Every structure is written in structure tokens, then in C-alpha cells.
Amino acid sequence: MNPLLSREPRVPFSAIRPDHVEPALDTALAEAQTALEALVTASGPRTFDTILALDALTERLSRPMGLVAHLVSVQDSPELRAAYNAVLPRYTAFLTGLPLHEGLWRAVKEAAESPQAARLEGVARRHLEKTLQEFRRAGAELSGADKARLEAINVELSQLGAKFSENTLDATNAFELLLTDEADLAGLPASALERARSSAEAKGLSGWRFTLQAPSYVPFMTYAENRALRETMYRAYTSRASGGAFDNREVIGRILALRRERAQLLGYPDHADYALEPRMVGSGARALAFVTELTERTRPHWQREVAELSAFAAALGLGELQPWDVAFVTERLRRERYAFDEEALRPFFPLEGVLAGLFELTETLFGVRVTRRDNPEVWHPDVAYYDLHDLSGTHLGSFYTDWFPREDKRSGAWMNPLITGGPTAGGFDPHVALIAANFSPPEGGRPALLTHSEVQTTFHEFGHLLHHCLSRVSVRARAGTNVAWDFVELPSQIMENWCWERPALDLFARHVDTGERLPEELFNKLRAARTFAGANAQMRQLSYGAVDLALHITYDPASGDPVGFAQRVMAPFAIRPEFAHNSFLTAFTHIFAGGYAAGYYSYKWAEVLDADAFSRFQREGLFNPETGRAFVEAILSRGDSAPPEVLFREFMGRDPDPEALLRRNLGLGETAVRPSDEVTPSEVA
């Protein structure tokens, strides 16, 4: 049997080869087409079962394609890439063609108008209403010619997204900085040097090899004293995929043009209004108002931080602060002010210890036990496999972890739902997912030692995983992380809060050699430095959200040069306008190859929710199982079975308090005053 068509929870990844891809998708497409014809031509009255049959049809097709897409992200190769790109147009055409199928749309409407539909409640009622909305938003009521054009747009957009991702990966891998003079390494911590030495040896080179992958790039920009080399690395990173063989500039222009054309074809002025209509924020104007308001609230604090950084750069003898100095000067100022160096924390965060503490927290707080299992059917030796059970013994799900960078793996960190299970007539089908990241790998026979930032990322992605695997929604399309995009980050971002709390850190922050707990002095420095440069970090995130929205609201694709447009939007968020003169846009995979187009604002939107929701844990107990179960029952298990604002109010008993974010990120006191015209999630739901 073709391993991509396996229905087993343990996916036979080790058996999957590129030559399985096209036969598997051809088979799945043929089966889906047959099921579609049977659904459309079925006799008898239409009921909610018609909608459920449609869900089953799409799930059987999306599952093998999702597995292939996953492998492309973690084990890319020319052969796999070619096979994926060969089937992607056919797959996209079939799925986007479903709402455009007149017979299917007629069947869906008849089901919605049936006497049975009028009696539906709960998740069934919501799913029916959402299905009708999704069909209309996908062009079900367009004319024949417009339907054909819409289908062509969707196919081309899927191909362009894949191309953007490929170009970004290839451009990232195309650069290396090989150093052979030890004087050039001044300031770099031992962990970064060890990785650079290992990287060079793996390529058969002598010296220290630095790349644009995060575990190499971030320490170099933070600690390297050689300013000229920092500039070299910075310019390489911020110009990825902006020219040469991996140029994404034309890809960006075409994506933006097609998104606008699609939106207008469907009756929306721009992609932002189209994309945001079903989300909490509701429209592009509301999202932009949220970003603008939060920017203005942040700006005075940011300006003070910029003045401090600029003065400290001069005191260090650097003269005028440059873009490639920011991380370096920020770290030096943090050391000066708090006598704190994040590298000093690494020995206290061995990866396996962090995971053990995270799993203990999960069992205590949410009533979910995590157990590692042997599984030889993985895509790389670094991959581990785990099961999750609730305390009654129900197998809720399984997940894979893939923590370390490789040249055939895309950058960043993510959680990917591979299989959506849930309650069935016969019991419970387990969910399956994975967490992937690009953390500092083991070096010199020692275990992987994480930075505190990497610890937060671990908790963040595990929050997404819990949202998927703890789902108890019977309708797959409404289960797990299938929620409004500006709500999906709440379960992930709230988990990061425990990384700053002493009782939680005591579960896992133990010295790799001595087992010593994190010393109180070091913990106090960590806490004191939490809001250090918080306004700068917040402005950076807001700048990305502003660029994203501007590209999808005001940018005219016919005018050309989206990179220049993005630079102009970024200028008010930059320390000086020239800080925005780079090509970061050509590697902005979140909005051109991910799901964040017109949605990058949602990171900050969800931070408002998570900062406020965590306050209940602070009041009632960080490990209070009753509070944890309330969070599971209101948020983690509910998916999209009810509107997100309803779920939030169910957990908190009220609408969100936007001041919680400012208090946490900027260190503001309880007396912060909210402007009367501030836009908050509760107001735009």
C-alpha cells in the first residue's frame, strides 16, 4: 500500500519516497471525485449528513497532501519538491472548485433549508452556518466565467506561495561566512563558537562557519564585537531572496495582484477586508486601527529606549547607531543595567529537562499525561514521538518533535496538525501533530542547551499542540486550531507566561552538570530584564503588522516595487528612516507563504487576550488544576464550536482588558489609562 494513503495514527514517514507522491494524490483525487459525484447525485432529502459527507470527502484528500507538505518543510529535496509542485495545481484546483460546483452548492443550500437544519444546535448549527459562509466567500454565487477565473487565481497563488518558500530556503542556505582568524570571533559565546566549528567541519572546512539560520545568525548579531562582520551578516540576512537566482520580488508583486483581484471578484475592496471578515477584528480598517492605536501607546516608551540605545552606542565608541548594532548594543546595555547575560542561562535549560518540566506542568494543570514512545517510522533520527492521554486513560493524540536546524528544513518554529481526530460514535480518534523548531543543537557531546527565548518558543508551540490534541469537537472542520486566525495564538502565547514564573521554572531549570536550581540572583535578573527593550520589540512586531496591512489595503500592485513601498511604511517605525532600507519583505514567509496575509496584527491581538487570561492563573494559582480545567473546557477543547469572544468570556467572565498587555510588555503600572476610542478585541468581535 502507498504509505501516504495509510489511515494509521502512526504515519509511516520512513517509508515515504518522492515517487509515492503523484500516485497517492492521483488515487485520493479519484476517490474524492467519485465521492463528490455520489454526493451531488444522491436521491432523497438533503440533511446535515450532506455537510458531513463533504467534510469526509475533503479530509481524505487533504490528509495525504498535508503529509507531503510537511515533508517538504522538514526534508526538502529536488525530487520531493518536484513531486509536490507537480500535484499542487491539481489538488488546489479540486478543493477550490468545490464551492464553485453548482450541483454541490445546490445540495448544500438544500441541506441548510431542510426541516432538520432548523433544529440543529451547538457545533452542528455553527458548522452549517460557517459552511454556507465559506461557500459564498469562495465564490459559490459567482457567474460561470468568474468562477473559472477564481479557480485559476487560487491555483496560481498556491504555486506562487510554494515558490516563495523555496526561494527563501534556497537563499538562506546560499550564504555562509567562514572565519579563520580567531580575532574575528571576539565576544561570541562558547556555544556559538562550538556550533560554528561543527558547521565548518560538516562541510569539510577549517575555521568557523556562520549561516543565516537562527541558531547561528542571532548569536552572531548579539555578541560579535567585529562591527564590519555584523554588517556583512545583517545585509545578507535582510536581502535574502531579493535578487539573483532566488529572487522573490516578482513573486511578491504577482501574489499581491492576484489577492486583490480575487477580493474584488468576490465583492470586497481589498484582500484585507476579504481575509478579515470572518475573524474577530472583522475588517481591514479595524485591524489597522488596532495597530495604529497600540503603536501610539507604545511610541513614547520606544522613543525613550531608542535614546538610551543611541547614547550607549556612543559610549561604547560606536558613534552613530546602525541597524547591525541594535542587537549587540541592546545586549551590552542589558548586561550593564542588570549584570545579566542570557548565555548564562543556557546550562540551566537542557532541552530534555525543559520538556520534562513542561510535561509535568501539563499533567498538573490540564490533566494530560505525556509519554515518550519508540517509533522508528520517522523522517530523521532527531525526531521523537510522544503520546498524550487524559487521566482517565483516553488516548487523546500523538505528536512528533523535530527541534534542530538542517539545510533541508525551513527556518522558524511551528506546530503542524497532521491528523484531526475527536469524539466518534465508537469512542475517540486520536489527533496527530508535530512541533518543529530550529534550536541550538547538541555540541561536543553535551545535550542541547536552550536560551530562555528558545524555552519560550517550546512552550508556545506546545500550546498550539494542546489546542489541537485536546480538542473534543465532533466536527473536524470546527476542531482544534481551526479557529479565527486572531484567536489561534491565545493558547500558544499564554503558555509562555509560565517561563517567567519561579514555581514553574523550578520544575525544569536545573544546571546540566550539577542539577542546581536556577539561582535566585539569576532569576531576579531575568525577571528584572523582562521588560527591558520591550517597547522596541513591540514596535518591531507592530511594524510588520502595519506593512502587512498596508500591502493588502493601500498598495497598488500596478505601481510596482512592493519592497520600496514596504520600506516607506516601515520608516516611522525605524530608529532612523535608513534603518528601513532593506529587503526583509522578500523573505517574509509569514504573509507570502504562510497564513498571515493581512493577519500579522493577530500576534499582538492575541497578546491582549493572553496577557489578560493569564491574570486568572495569577490570581487563582499557577498550578491550580481547577483553573487549568476551566481553560481546557472553555478554550483548549472547544475549537471553533462557538465564537471566540464567547469562549473568552466563558473563561474570564468578561471581555478582554487591553491594559494587561501594556502592563506586562512595557512594565506599566495598574494606573494606565485607556483612551476612550481604543479598539480592542471585545469591541470588534
From TrEMBL:
Domain Oligopeptidase A N-terminal, residue spans: 28-146
Top-level class of the enzyme under EC nomenclature: hydrolase
Co-factor remark: Binds 1 zinc ion.
An example molecular function term from Gene Ontology annotations: metalloendopeptidase activity
Keyword terms, alphabetized: Hydrolase, Metal-binding, Metalloprotease, Protease, Zinc
Gene Ontology biological process terms in this record: proteolysis
InterPro entries given in the database record: M3A_DCP (IPR034005), MetalloPept_cat_dom_sf (IPR024079), Neurolysin/TOP_dom2 (IPR024077), OpdA_N (IPR045666), Pept_M3A_M3B (IPR045090), Pept_M3A_M3B_dom (IPR001567)
Signal sequence coordinates: none
Domain Peptidase M3A/M3B catalytic: 220-664
Keyword flag rRNA processing: no
Catalyzed reactions per annotation: Hydrolysis of oligopeptides, with broad specificity. Gly or Ala commonly occur as P1 or P1' residues, but more distant residues are also important, as is shown by the fact that Z-Gly-Pro-Gly-|-Gly-Pro-Ala is cleaved, but not Z-(Gly)(5)
Enzyme Commission number(s) from the entry: 3.4.24.70
A GO cellular-component term linked to this record: cytosol
Protein name: oligopeptidase A
Listed cofactors: Zn(2+)
Family per record: Belongs to the peptidase M3 family.
